[in-house]
Amino acid sequence: MPADWNPAQYRRFAAERAQPFHDLLALIRPGLMRRAVDLGCGPGELTALAADELGVEEMLGIDNSPAMLEVAQQRNDERVRFVAGDIGSWTAPGDHDLVLAAASLQWVPDHPAVLARWAAALAPGGQLAVQVPANAWMPSHRVMDDLANSPAHRDAFGPDGPPVDPVAVNVLEPEVYARLLFDLGFVEQHVRLQVYPHVLPSTRHIVEWVRGTTLTRFEKRLAPDVFARFLADYERALIDVLGDNEPQFFPFRRILFWGRRE
Q: How far is residue 112's CA from residue 107's CA, in Å, rounded to a whole number?
């Protein structure tokens, strides 16, 4: 996961980004929640919300972005804490009632191994709730990656070329996650692909949306002036494909899955 996120940019579409988080929380069975973790907690608002709604006695938020943690740690109290860590390698000795990961798993590879570690952290009857984007082939991402690999921009990224879209590389099909949950011993599960029908003020607002997330992988590799030129070209290319619309319909595909251990 990029370590140089911009919390203010990410929060520009806070309401829209919160919709799948609320849907994910709705999948979680109510009950005693002594210990829970939010992997990839970001600026922490939704972590604190989850702790309140689910009645978690001890909630830990983990992220690897110093900027995000600086914001999140302002919410530290006796019940909710935020620390730096690697969500891909995180696990615990079977003492968590809930492992939560919203829009973070896509940044790490080898989901079968990662989910096995997360499952091992659960106590008997513990629950896993995960949401990942699944829109790598939508125009917002396809146009971006095609532009980054074009002759006009590819050389700016150095000999290795532009970084690949982690959603395209890491995210699996919904039925694969269902099989993984079964193989990991989850006795109940819910897996679905959901399209969120966002309506943004204009086509240009899609640029601002992805600038808070997947464009960070390009921004940290390019000089500021080079990145500014890339943004301008991306906006023009996106308008060529989608039109210069006000408002702009922006369908966003996500996979939500939940499971409960025996």
A: 14
Q: Confidence band (pLDDT; 50, 70, 90) for 260?
A: very high
Calpha distance 44→38 (Å, rounded) = 9
Tokens 């995210």 correspond to: 171
69: its two tokens: 């943690």
**Closest-CA residue to 72 (of 45, 52, 38, 104):** 45
Task: Sort 124 into a burial class: Cβ within 10 Å, 0-12 / 13-18 / 19+.
Answer: exposed
- Domains of the chain and any CATH numbers: 1-134+171-197+252-262 (3.40.50.150), 135-163+202-246 (1.10.150)
Short-list 118, 97, 134, CA closest to 39: 118
Task: Name which of 71, 70, 49, 74 is nearest 59 in CA terms.
Answer: 49
- Whether the CB-CB separation of 245 and 235 falls below 8 Å is answered with no
For the four alpha carbons of 59, 65, 68 and 71, in that order, the dihedral sign comes to: positive
pTM of the model: 0.91
Model confidence pLDDT, tens digit, residues 66-108: 989 999 999 999 999 999 999 999 999 999 999 999 999 999 9
CA distance 213 to 165: 11
In terms of C-beta density within 10 A (0-12 exposed, 13-18 middle, 19 or more buried), how is residue 43 classed? buried
- In a 3-state reduction of DSSP, which class is residue 107? helix
The upper half-sphere exposure of residue 122, i.e. CA atoms within 13 Å in the direction of its Cβ, equals: 22
